């Protein structure tokens, strides 16, 4: 029972957002006035922000499903950042719904589900859990990109985002498969430990690392995978463009940095900094 309660305390920020998103979906089903959806959205972000610091003092259990998640200062920082991004995007969207009588309750729910996925990405210590969070964020982002429903450019935005995102996910998952084949594990720490000792799998490990990094490059629209990004940003609603450009990329970089440091054991180095700087400049 103690482990059960600690588990709920540790994932309190995500639970609050998921419950609030479910309530908003019910609001949409019963055509509740949008004023109530604004209230639920912003109150849930505030409560989830408070829960982030409460959850920071509760470690995840060392066994069971939640053992694949971290709860450290790194996650607290990114949780706070994601909640701030979600709240600001929701605030920017109020004017949009004053001009367009769209599915406002569902919109705020989709943003919340995306934020939950971003939290899972930042907190994961397992490649499959990270991928689960990535797909939660990606699927909701595809829906949000096509939210200007009557406009063809918005439908084009969602379709292009879906195809590029699906291609990037396939490449990333291919890299995960190679890393698992090379090391026999999908946990960040175990991959780093086994890669250092099992030199006979060096080629498979290198191929998996390359595909994994290419998948992340797809998700952040880094060169040479940035071609479809302008059409996606142009066709999506402006608040969604801001959310994708800032929130989704921040979550991807959060997961990417943890994998680089823990699994691939790449510390501060001039050559790696030069590669990142070159990719940023070219993009």
Description:
By secondary structure, the chain is mainly alpha-helical. It is 78% helix and 0% strand. It contains twelve helices and no strands. It has helices at residues 2-10, 12-29, 34-55, 73-99, 104-123, 127-145, 152-183, 188-197, 202-219, 229-235, 238-263, 270-282. The radius of gyration is 19 Å and the shape is globular. The termini are far apart.
Q: Helices, strands, pairings?
A:
Layout (H helix, E strand, L loop, with lengths): L1 H9 L1 H18 L4 H22 L17 H27 L4 H20 L3 H19 L6 H32 L4 H10 L4 H18 L9 H7 L2 H26 L6 H13 L1
Helix pairs in contact: 2-3, 2-5, 3-4, 3-5, 4-5, 4-11, 5-6, 5-11, 6-7, 6-11, 7-8, 7-9, 7-10, 8-11
In short:
This protein has 283 residues and is mainly α. It has helices at 2-10, 12-29, 34-55, 73-99, 104-123, 127-145, 152-183, 188-197, 202-219, 229-235, 238-263, 270-282.
């Amino acid at each position: 029972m103690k482990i059960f309660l600690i588990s709920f305390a540790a994932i309190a920020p995500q639970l609050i957002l998921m419950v609030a998103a479910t309530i908003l979906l019910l609001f949409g089903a019963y055509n509740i006035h949008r004023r109530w959806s604004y209230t639920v959205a912003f109150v849930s972000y505030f409560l989830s922000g408070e829960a982030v610091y409460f959850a920071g003092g509760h470690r995840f259990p060392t066994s069971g499903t939640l053992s694949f998640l971290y709860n450290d200062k790194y996650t607290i920082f990114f949780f706070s950042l994601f909640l701030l991004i979600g709240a600001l995007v929701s605030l920017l969207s109020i004017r949009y719904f004053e001009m367009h009588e769209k599915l406002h309750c569902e919109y705020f729910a989709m943003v919340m589900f995306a934020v939950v996925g971003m939290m899972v990405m930042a907190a994961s210590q397992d490649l499959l859990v990270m991928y689960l969070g990535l797909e939660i964020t990606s699927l909701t982002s595809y829906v949000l990109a096509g939210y200007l429903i009557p406009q063809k450019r918005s439908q084009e935005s969602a379709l292009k985002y879906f195809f590029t995102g699906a291609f990037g996910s396939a490449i990333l998952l291919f890299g995960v498969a190679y890393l698992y084949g090379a090391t026999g594990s999908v946990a960040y720490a175990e991959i780093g430990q086994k890669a250092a000792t099992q030199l006979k799998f060096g080629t498979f490990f290198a191929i998996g690392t390359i595909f994994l990094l290419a998948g992340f490059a797809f998700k952040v629209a880094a060169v040479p995978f940035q071609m479809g990004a302008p059409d996606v940003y142009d066709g999506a609603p402006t608040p969604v463009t801001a959310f994708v450009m800032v929130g989704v990329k921040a979550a991807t970089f959060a997961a990417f940095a943890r994998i680089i440091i823990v699994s691939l054991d790449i510390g501060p180095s001039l050559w790696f900094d030069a590669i990142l700087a070159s990719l940023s400049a070219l993009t």
